[in-house]
Amino acid sequence: MSQHIAIVEDEAAIAENYRDHLRRQGFRVSLYGDRNSAATAFRDRLPDLVIVDIGLGEEMEGGFDLCRELRARSATLPIVFLTARDSELDEISGLRLGADEYLTKGISNAQLLARIHALLRRVRALTAPEREEQLLQQGELEMNLERMTTCWRGKPVDLTVTEFWMVNALALHPGHVKSRQQLMDSADVVLDDNTITSHIKRIRRKFLQHDESFAAIETAYGVGYRWKG
């Protein structure tokens, strides 16, 4: 059975464009124009992935509210914000609420599809048998590349797909400086320098929640970042 993607978007023409593209890729797609209709539909069964705008009709932050509700129900459901709002504050708010990705509507269909496939691969990996050769260990850090999970001092660190591959790129070669471009290549994304910086800040914050002395990610000013081995 094809995987089910729900799009929660109040602009019908935009929603239909994404729906048609994803259907051509073999996905089953449902459209919802507001938070209430989406929430009602999701009560019976969650889709495999949700794409949601922030502003939904008269609810300027209806997408944030829906994300909060969905994340409370499922820790693994992939949630993608796709919005015209490109401020760093909105992006940080969306990711803090538990979204896996925050994308702006200028993204190409090909890039959107790549992010969707990456998120769905992560969900499949969570149910796959562990393979020892897919483990990366650096000091207190342990990353399972098959399940795409991260632990620090034995405690799980909840990273998004983008954050996971950035940490993996840094930890794979401790002491080596990775440029912003190399981090983008590792995460298969195209971001500006400020967004890369925001991702690194969020990654550090997530590790600091488990270890107040965390300092494994060092900034090489003007160059990039390194993992302190």
Automatic annotation (TrEMBL):
Keywords: DNA-binding, Phosphoprotein, Transcription, Transcription regulation, Two-component regulatory system
DNA-binding region(s), chain positions: 133-229
Residue numbers bearing the 4-aspartylphosphate modification: D53
Domain (Response regulatory): residue spans on this chain: 4-120
BP term (GO), one: regulation of DNA-templated transcription
Cellular component GO terms held in the UniProt record: cytosol; protein-DNA complex
Molecular-function annotations in GO: phosphorelay response regulator activity; transcription cis-regulatory region binding
Pfam family, any one: Trans_reg_C
Domain OmpR/PhoB-type: 133-229
InterPro entries from the UniProt entry: CheY-like_superfamily, OmpR/PhoB-type_DNA-bd, Response_regulator, Sig_transdc_resp-reg_receiver, WalR-like, WH-like_DNA-bd_sf
The name this protein goes by in its record: Proteobacterial dedicated sortase system response regulator
Gene coding for it: pdsR
